[in-house]
Amino acid sequence: MKHIAIYGGGGFGREVCMLINHINQHSKLYDFIGYFDDSKQKGCVIGKNHVLGGIKELNTYPEELYLVIAIGDPMIKSKIFLSIKNDKVKFPVLIHPSCIIGTENVTIGEGSIICAGSILTVDISIENHVILNLGCTVGHDTRIGSYSSLMPNVNVSGEVELGEGVYCGTGVKIINQLKVGSNTIIGAGGVVSRSLPSNCTAVGIPAKPIKFHSEQ
Predict the structure, then answer these.
(1) What is the CA angle 59-16-105, rounded to 5?
(2) Degrees to nearest 5, angle at CA 94 with 88 and 99
(3) What is the mean pLDDT of the chain?
């Protein structure tokens, strides 16, 4: 079996551990060895598993290792990825066995996590290190940029384009044929009925920008 670890020992990291366990129940692919997390003490226990260290220990890990970055914040997630310099570290795609994934032109980039109950239809491009949390749906001809994170029950309609590093809070709905710019945050429950620019925070029904932030 492939050795696998999780960077991030918070709540989502524990949920990803559960996801790995569910994958192994169907096909024993992974041997989970523990967590890496710079915010926690090396050797402490999360659930039944130990923290093996942080980026320093990860960059000196001597064997092939599959790693999942279980961090929801797109900016932090990208910084962690860029800090990993160990060429023995690989980034698998994790898909929960309950997901429905179309067989026509659906591509999912390295390090992406597709959680239980999610549905992807046809002609969809999911780039690298994307999170689709529980119960997300993605319609036809949609592209989701690298490092984006969709929280539980986000519904993305067809022909939508999400830029790099987009964060969609729980229950966001995005109407078809719209674009959301890179590094934009959409607050929980928002309904996107018009395209949104990059580097903003948008909330409400319909979702409107309430502030802009510097490019990340």
Answers:
(1) 95
(2) 170
(3) 96
The alpha helices in the chain, defined as continuous H runs, are: 11-26, 55-59, 74-83
Domain range annotation of the chain = 2-92, 95-204
Which tens digits make up the pLDDT trace of 67-97?
999 999 999 999 999 999 999 999 999 999 9
Tell me which CATH code domain 95-204 carries: 2.160.10.10
**Threshold 0.70, pTM exceeds:** yes
Tell me the average pLDDT across 130-134: 98
Of residues 107, 67, 109, 106, the one with CA closest to residue 85: 67
Cα(137)–Cα(120) distance, integer angstroms:
6
Strand pairing report for 185-186 and 200-203: parallel
Per residue in 161-199, pLDDT (tens digit) is 999 999 999 999 999 999 999 999 999 999 999 999 999
> What are the structure tokens assigned to 39, written together?
């915010």
CATH class of 2-92: alpha beta
User: What is the Cα–Cα distance from 46 to 27, expressed in whole angstroms?
Assistant: 24
What residues are labeled active site?
140
What angle is formed at CA 97 by the lines to CA 93 and CA 102, rounded to 5 degrees? 75
CA 28, CA 204: separation in Å to the nearest integer?
43
Cα angle for residues 66, 57, 216 (degrees, 5° grid): 75
Residues 203 and 182: their CA atoms lie apart, in Å, by 16
Mean pLDDT for 145-152 is 98
